[in-house]
Amino acid sequence: MLIGLVGKPSAGKSTFFKAATLAEAEIANYPFTTIKPNSGVGYVKVECVDKDFGKQCNPRTGYCSDHVRFVPVQLLDVAGLVPEAHLGKGRGNQFLDDLRQADVLIHVVDVSGSLNAHGEPVDVGSHDPAKDVEFLEIELDMWYLGILTKGWEKFARTVQQEGVQVQKPLAKQLSGLGCDEEMVLAAITRLQLPPSVMQWSEAHLKSLATELRKRTKPMIIAANKIDVRGGKENYERLVKQFPHYKIIPCSAESELALREAAKAGMIGYIPGEDHFGILQPERLNENQNKALQFIKENILGKHGSTGVQDVLDYAVFSVLKYIAIFPGGLNKLEDQYGNCLPDCFLLRDGSTALDFAYKLHTDFGKNFIRAIDVKTRRAVGKEHVLKHRDVVEIVASK
Q1: Is residue 43 part of a domain?
Q2: What is the DSSP pairing of strand 63-65 with strand 277-278?
Q3: Whole-prediction pTM
């Protein structure tokens, strides 16, 4: 799974990325601070199952804080996109290509309207953030259209002459974008395209590009800089104007400040929560105290969180529809080293016990005998559909 961070320059993508990963990403208020994509590990939040067993887990990857498990996911922060990026403006083709493998996109928008279309500072509120949402849709659609129509006439003639169903060769041509035959067929059916590809017009191809983009690169919007003047009003307007998107109010800068303070041991903070506790007040100077008070009152108090964790969780659990599954033994939750519930895996909703066995190891899948639902102590078969936060033991032949 790969989560791509997109948006125009200086909208706060790199700040969001650093807040989510605490990786060293260059942050500055000028276009193209990020040239090469930053790759890092963020985390999604799961209520840990350890408390169901009266235990304290010892994660091998990620971490657990107060029985809240943070499971690693891969994040990619690509350079800012500008209008006509699909034509190569601002090295746009390269940046778009960086997004090919992304499963979901987080569009970080400067909801305060303090940047123009090219990411250059302007008076707060003078730019309409709705234009940023529309511009990114256009750039992504035109990028898809360019890939779709490359050598189209030859492609269409070949499909016609060979008499094959178009979804198979088309899925192959677009496989780099995450398309498969089922997805292509569903898009063609929904759009009611003519049965012969030779009859597909430019308008048909544009609508197909848009439909496939929506299916392969679902997107949510992080309305960043919500605390800046005019941000709240713009956010409320965006929600009404784009009801088909999930739009989450966000302050990446506040999240970064809280996570760095927590890492330094000055505060106790669980990402995504609406509060924090000051652990070492003597280490905080006047400016730090003021900053924390501002975050407490204007971000956490008004919005319930900084939004960063909410965005990541929504992307993985609501958009991509993943569930968290814990491997564990019926009589022993510890591994050979004594670590309790050391692993947590993210699987697609609808995954079966057999899918989970293969996720653990190919041999477990090939030699599957049964699975055990550790919570209910019930044996289940390979077709058993798993639920979020299940604890499962796989029994396989040797």
Answers
A1: no
A2: unpaired
A3: 0.91
